[in-house]
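To assess whether ligand presence alters the predicted conformation, the chain was also submitted together with zinc ion. Input:
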Amino acid sequence: MDNFEIVDFNSLSEVVQNLIKEAVEIRKRAYVPYSNFAVGSAILTEEDSKVYTGCNIENSALTPCICAERAAVPKAVCDGYLKFKIVAVVAHQKDSFTAPCGVCRQTLSEFRGSDGDIDIYLSRPTMDKVLCTKLSQILPLSFVSYKEDSVIS
Ligand SMILES: [Zn+2]
């Protein structure tokens, strides 16, 4: 597959490195008493380059569980930021990277940057290797809202 590449953390720009570090930090606040699988996420907004972070939050009823990415998105949106440039996701899996789930991919697609895409970086807490991809690569043929071309009049 050519839809991602894995690089050394140190080869990334300072902006991306800092975003990953923010995701590592917020991951420590993950509320995961059931799975013990902690995830942190950090979003860089296109306008003003603001950083918004989120951790996953579990619930004994299971369905109200929220992913780290979807914990960060409302914080940005509530502050008026609707275009995201970069999203970092950090979790620990020994032999793989943790990618956003399908629901989070669709959620993020609502807030694509002006170029129509979002850069995605997946890291482990050790911040050694980082998987680099784009939302368009991990969510091809995303659902596009009715608002763009098919509003019923
Ligand atoms: Zn998710």
